[in-house]
Write a structure and sequence with these properties.
By secondary structure, the chain is of the alpha+beta class. The chain contains 8 helices and 19 strands. Strand 13 and strand 14 form a beta hairpin. Bound molecules: flavin-adenine dinucleotide.
């Protein structure tokens, strides 16, 4: 009998497997496809507090995520690296000038001792000195702030490797039939083998509600995904040196253009739209690509980028907690739902996965009525 069965091998499931195994629990993780195949390989790859969440008043989330950013920079310097960002303001946005200046200073303050470098307002000339490609854009000015970029799928694989090294069993391409009962769960694997476990963790991102239905758990509607697409350009065609955060000229949504020299490309994203598409079959719509192209052409008119210059495109579904309101205004906080021996982890971000995993494993201690050793994932380096 296992202590924990985890369904879902995204960043959250991988983080939980590592933490639980390090605390001495016997763990099996089942992933329907390959680890990281879902949302965790389709993010904007920012390890960030989320400067735009300050506008939503989500101070707690920003503070927590900035603390996690500091931890990931320390334990995974090969996968997460500091990145200075320029927040640019369109000439029409003069009334935002003071607001952005205060915003980046607050961001610095919330990062406490982990600010990573200078945060301050910039004039138009100051912006262009940092990033000459901005010279042709109708900009008022902006601000310099510090964040980090991460390798999302690299973080998943690294957590899986560390989980296995700590004794966890990880089965990919495994869609089990799971039966929940009062003593725990049993999972019938495709080959006919049965795994019994004293507890079940659902770390299923945007698949959460569908799989809960599949295994007969009450339908709670925990997650409501919004679709985000990214496109890439080659570094030669789009020789951006500095990461840029901008407001889209159509609707003022914050989006990013981020150079990824290690991949020889610039990543542009993202969108945030309601969708009825299944996370198994997401599509990159023409309208979404056109939306990103309008922003890029507005900010970098001299490059004359066209859709034919796009070298890559993909879509992901954010596993956001179900809430009323505009898509981009929904919280990125997470929630742990317990029913008997089942824990469902919903919401969250790539950046906060470690904290989500820690809270989940703390919760497992209660379910298993076991006093577990303290979490060590904030200190142990990732492989
Ligand atoms: C466009 C976009 C941009 C983003 N940008 C950022 C960012 O810059 N920074 C940030 O911090 N966060 C970002 N996020 C959020 C972040 O990517 C997600 O919060 C995170 O990856 C979710 O991880 P997860 O493990 O919960 O879900 P997933 O990665 O989706 O993992 C769930 C897994 O469950 C598996 N599964 C499904 N059904 C079953 C089953 N029956 N049995 C077993 N396994 C099953 C799936 O195959 C999948 O691998 C972004 C998200 C999107 C969509």
């Amino acid at each position: 009998m296992q202590d924990v069965l985890i369904l879902g091998g995204g960043i959250v499931g991988a983080g939980i497997a590592r933490d639980a195994a390090l605390r001495g629990l016997s763990v099996t993780l089942l992933e329907k496809r390959t680890v990281g195949w879902g949302t965790s390989s389709r993010s904007s790859r920012l390890i960030h507090g989320g400067i735009r969440y300050l506008e939503m008043g989500d101070i707690h989330l920003v503070h927590e995520a900035l603390a996690e950013r500091a931890i990931l920079l320390r334990i995974a310097p090969h996968l997460v690296r500091p990145a200075p960002f320029l927040f640019v303001l369109d000439a029409r946005e003069y009334w935002q000038w003071a607001r952005v200046g205060v915003g980046v200073l607050l961001y610095r303050l919330l990062a406490s001792g982990h600010g990573l470098g200078p945060h301050h307002p910039l004039t138009h000339d100051g912006l262009v000195t940092h990033e000459p490609l901005l010279g042709g854009a109708p900009l008022l000015g902006g601000a310099l702030y510090q964040d980090a970029r991460g390798d999302d799928i690299g973080l998943v694989r690294s957590n899986i490797e560390a989980a296995k090294a700590a004794g966890a069993r990880v089965c990919e391409h495994t869609h089990a039939q799971v039966h929940v009962h009062s003593e725990g769960v049993s999972a019938l694997l495709p080959g006919g083998k049965v795994i019994s476990s004293r507890s079940l963790v659902l770390a299923l991102g945007p698949w959460t509600d569908a799989v809960r239905r599949e295994i007969g758990l009450p339908s709670l509607g925990l997650v409501s995904g919004t679709k985000g697409i990214h496109v890439t350009f080659s570094g030669e065609r789009f020789p951006l040196r500095h990461a840029v955060a901008l407001r889209h000229p159509d609707d003022a949504r914050v989006m990013f253009c981020v150079p990824e020299p290690e991949h020889g490309r610039v990543l542009v994203g993202t969108t945030d739209t309601e969708t009825t598409e299944s996370p198994d079959h997401l599509t990159v719509g023409d309208a979404d690509v056109a939306y990103l192209m309008r922003a890029v052409r507005h900010l970098f008119p001299a490059l004359d980028l066209v859709e034919g210059d796009i070298t890559g495109r993909w879509a992901g579904l954010r596993p956001l907690l179900r809430q009323q309101g505009a898509t981009s205004g929904r919280t990125r906080e997470h929630h742990l739902h317990q029913e008997g021996r089942v824990l469902t982890v919903a919401g969250g971000k790539l950046t906060t996965y470690r904290k989500m995993a820690e809270e989940t494993v703390d919760g497992l201690g209660g379910i298993l009525q076991q006093s577990l050793p303290p979490c060590r994932t904030a200190d142990l380096p990732l492989p």
